[in-house]
Structure formats: C-alpha cells, structure tokens
C-alpha cells in the first residue's frame, strides 16, 4: 500500500510540473522566435532610413516612426531606436504598451557595414504566464485525478482482495477444525471399540 501511494504521488507531481513546464517552454519559445524574426523586418525599415541619409538619419524620427507603425500595425509593440553612442533617438508605442513582465530584443542597423545604431523592441510575456497559470491549474487537477486513480482505486481493490483472502482463510480454518473434531471423535470411537474388544476377550477367557 505504501509503495502504491508513493508511486501515485510521484506520478501526480510529475504531471503537475511537466504540463505547465511544457506550456511555458512552448509559449516563451514562440514569443522569442516570433519577436526575433519580426524585429529583423522592423530593423530593415529603419535601415532604409539610414541608407537614405547616413549622416543625419538620427534626425529622421518621423520617417522611422511611420515605417515602424506601418510594419507593426495591429500589434502591441514598443520600440526604442538608439544611435551607436547609445543615445535614445525614438521611443514609440504601437497599439497598447506591453504589460509586465517584458522581454527586450535588440537588432542592429548598419551604415556601410558599420553599426550605426540599433532597434530595441519590448514584448509582453503576460499572456504566456497566464497560459502557464491555466496549464498549472489543469495539471494540478489532472495530477490529483491520476493520483486518485493510481492510489485510491488499487488500494480499494487490494482491500477487497484481502477481505476475500481472509474469508477464504476463515473457511479453511473452520474446515480444519471440523476435520480435527471428526478425527478426535474417530479416535475416541476407536479407543472405545478396543476397550470393548478387550473386555469381550477377557470375558471369553474367564469362561470354563
């Protein structure tokens, strides 16, 4: 029983941890891979502005803002564009501002093969954590259900089996006692018969 209970607990804990862990990995992987791929395209839009006027591109904030808004239309994004010295050139929010927790992704922009600056994109992880929370709740319920099935039901069956075995044992012991009583009665009968025979023999020997 203890072994079954321990096994059920281990399986339940494994499910409760593995399911949300898998969901977190998938959600974060999708966000990161999608954000990195999208950021390359956003940086290319800024790159075009740099290519038009490499010397004064940092003053072309309206052009960069327009290019980024068009590229990120329909999404919730926040962009920071900085020059090679790290000075902030443009801070832009498209849609709604990303909610905490936030991940930052950076892609450089180049001028004649040299880094002219970079585009930083901020993306919210909130939705991923919400999905992970739901996965944890589902995993916990599933773990409880599996632990119940693996622990309670086998123990119940084991209890019924033990009860059946005890019943069979009681029947065997009852039959054994009955056989012992019969054997004792037979022994007593045999003794009486022997006594009767001995008495009869003595009587016959005493006759003239």
Q: What report would you give on this structure?
A:
α1 (2-52) packs across α2 and α1 runs antiparallel to α3. The model has no long low-confidence stretch (mean pLDDT 78). The protein has three helices and four strands. The longest helix is centred in the last third of the chain and has 81 residues, at 126-206. It is 69% helix and 17% strand. The protein has 208 residues and is α+β, with helices and mostly antiparallel strands. The radius of gyration is 44 Å and the shape is rod-shaped. A four-stranded antiparallel beta sheet has the order 2-1-4-3. It starts with a helix and ends with a helix. It has helices at residues 2-52, 61-71, 126-206; strands at 77-83, 88-94, 102-111, 114-124.
What is the CA-CA span between the terminal residues?
A: 81 Å
Oligomer: single chain
Record the strand order, biggest sheet. 2-1-4-3
Instruction: Report the β-strand fraction as a percent range.
Output: 15-25%
The number of distinct β-strands equals 4
Helix content: 55-70%
Q: Low-confidence parts, pLDDT < 50 over ≥5 residues?
A: none
| Average pLDDT figure | 78
Counting helices, strands and paired strands, the structural category is alpha+beta
Radius of gyration: 44 Å
Shape field: rod-shaped
Task: List the helices and strands in order.
Answer: HHEEEEH
Question: How many H/I helices?
Answer: 3
The main β sheet shows up as:
4 strands, antiparallel
Primary descriptors:
208 residues; alpha+beta; rod-shaped
């Amino acid at each position: 029983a203890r072994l079954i209970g321990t096994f059920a607990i281990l399986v339940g804990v494994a499910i409760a941890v593995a399911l949300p862990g898998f969901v977190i990995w998938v959600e974060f992987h999708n966000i990161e891979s999608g954000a990195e791929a999208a950021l390359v395209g956003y940086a290319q839009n800024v790159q075009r502005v740099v290519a038009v006027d490499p010397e004064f591109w940092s003053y072309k904030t309206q052009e960069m803002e327009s290019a980024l808004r068009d590229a990120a239309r329909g999404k919730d994004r926040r962009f920071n564009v900085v020059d090679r010295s790290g000075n902030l050139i443009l801070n832009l929010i498209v849609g709604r501002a990303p909610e905490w927790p936030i991940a930052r992704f950076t892609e450089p922009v180049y001028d004649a093969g040299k880094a002219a600056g970079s585009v930083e994109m901020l993306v919210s992880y909130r939705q991923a954590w919400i999905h992970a929370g739901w996965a944890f709740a589902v995993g916990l319920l599933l773990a409880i259900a599996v632990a119940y099935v693996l622990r309670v039901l086998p123990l119940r069956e084991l209890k019924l089996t033990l009860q059946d075995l005890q019943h069979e044992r009681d029947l065997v012991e009852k039959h054994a006692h009955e056989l012992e009583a019969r054997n004792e009665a037979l022994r007593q009968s045999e003794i009486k018969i022997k006594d009767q025979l001995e008495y009869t023999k003595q009587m016959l020997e005493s006759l003239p």
